[in-house]
Amino acid sequence: MDxxxxxxxxxxxxxxxxxxxxxxxxxxxxxxxLGKLLPGVVDAYFGPAELKAQVDAEAxxxxxxxxxxxxxxxxxxxxxxxxxxxxxxxxxxxxxxxxHALMLAGDPLPYPDYLACLFDLEPEPMPxxxxxxxxxxxxxxxxxxxxxxxxxxxxxxxxxxxxxIAPDRVPALVDWLVAQVRDRADRLIGLPTGEQxxxxxxxxxxxxxxxxxxxxxxxxxEVNTDHLCRPAxxxxxxxxxxxxGRHTEHAWKERRLVGEIGRLEASxxxxxxxxxxxxxGLAYLGERIVAPDETMVGLLLELYxxxxxxxxxxxxxxxxxxxxQVLIGRALENLRAVVANAAFLFHxxxxxxxxxxxxxxxxxxxxxxRAERQLALIEDPISRAEVVAxxxxxxxxxxxxxxxxxxxxxxRFGRLLREQTTPGSIVADLSSAGFGGGGW
Length: 440
Hints:
three-stranded mixed sheet; two-stranded antiparallel sheet; 19 helices; 8% strand
């Protein structure tokens, strides 16, 4: 395949980029045009610079033309794409493009059908019994104070306050921690040569970390020290955003799919598509790969010490706290789908904002201000579906990983980092295995 000099979006310096085949070229143009119409949906682009320049110079496509172009490209796949996995992946992505076009053209599908088209499966609300059980676990696990009127939210806030690290200590902790999870990820699943993560530290805003993949196996991550200042949260960030999560996935797909086999459609990453659901599941489950429970306790103890926390002076108390933190963390994981359920209530069942806010406050033990921020996400054109991708991706991959041995789980994780796998193909694999368990 011919090589051409190009520069990926946001990448410093020149690097060689393969010339895309006609299918990949038209897919990239369509993806970039979608991003122009729906700002924020293109999460990363490191493909040929001339294609991005072409789209930047164009008048915006209409939603009708976007849908027509997606449909025409989909019709070409059986003739022009011989590899079944690539063809299935492209088809699923293009169905999502068409669903976006319908929604934003004012001819929306019902919310469940819209999600099914975006994500190549039929998402379902999480049974509320899962939330009830998690809430019971938190009541049992969280230390109580002297006031009988304390809520779970108060007790959780008090627990977190005991482990809050001064912002000026966070960069050194992140450097040490990322080196630990990087080493484990490299030993378990391998890393592309030359990959690199760099950090900026900021404050303000409601988010914890912002990941920007620049191409060339490089990721820039902004860490908000107002929110990422507790050991358990730092471990989640390191696994989720770095190793073996988002950065690792982007770097491997650039190396394997783009660089080695020339599937340049993988040089753009889009939110609210089938690839985004798989990516979200990988990012959340990455922590279980590099920091299973027995490893997590050791990481927490080291971070207590390095972070200057008072509890580190009492090794027995520190170990008890670390073991309890693991259990609390597992309970909180089971509440991740609350926001997705709230989105179903709002968009599919027509619940009022007040009722949805009450639902969020009930299960997430949050105040009105935080509930209002979650409501704003549920109403946002991109986040209204993205909140479902996060919980559904994690749930799908948990089920898929569960019916394998620990070694098979790591192998499957590595496959997802390097291959074009759709949610629908994983669902089919689960169905053929007769598996419908609750997840690893």
